[in-house]
Amino acid sequence: MDYFAAVRAFVHAAERQSFSKTALEMGVKTSTVSRYVSELEKDLGIALFNRSTRGLVLTEGGRVFREHALLALQALDDARELTSSLNQTPQGVLRITMPVAFGHRHVVPHLPAFMKRYPDIGVDIVVTDETLNMIEGGVDVAVRIGALPDSLLMARRLAPHRRIVCASPGYFERNGTPAEPDDLAHHESLRLALQPDDRWFFMKRKDAPEKPKHTLVELKGRFRGDDSEAVLQLALAGCGVALLPTWLVGTALRDERLIHVLGDWEARTARAEPAIWAVYPPKKIVSSKVRAFVDFLAEVIGEPPYWDDGLDV
Fold it and tell me: I need a labelling partner for 107 at 20 to 30 A (CA). Which of 164, 183, 245, 300 fits?
């Protein structure tokens, strides 16, 4: 038995809960995956899966074996990458995950240039607003937005994540323009469901750093959505005031379809300072393909980020 092939088949089957899906992913026959698992069970003297009509379910022994098998496979992958990194040409398949709106606007459009620069790298993207488990999902690098929680993951800051208060000219003509953050309590606010509560946090930009003036504004409004693109569309339609990132609204601001207000204030959805990050699993050596992508994305975004060009933010 090819023990490592069998272990990889088992780990994939545990994730996919299916021999047939595992076989398709690994490019082998379903019978081969089944044989690998059967041989492992015979070698270990314990059943790894309970089979049912709804799929495969790990037994207690299967869960224990999977936990340690993942560590062993990771160690093997680290050894291979450490050795192959001696070859300075980035290569292999790079699996990237990214948020939907930011990914479509500021990652995917640059992938052709990245793939042209690195012809030996294949790209596999997962576009989702869900925070994936990078180890279990086999993700090489994740683009994430916000304040990073404490974790064992490595991260590189790519850009600040600035949000601004904005609305359409027509909305302000009908409802007046807020002069202070507290004025927003009387406006129709377009809120993101991903926010922790119905408040926006403001800090005066021009105050001394050691004594910042700040305020929390309670919001009201009839619309709440879990997608920033949807909030943008309603803001453009004149439905209310939105707090949106500059990477999303830059074009609308330049075209004067949206107006930025409260420019003397830094606005956030929480007190913690957010940013845009490239995140990758901790390893003794970062693979050349991950390093190539992170460096490329940082270069493309620039400092300050290109989407802020010409904006007073």
Answer: 164
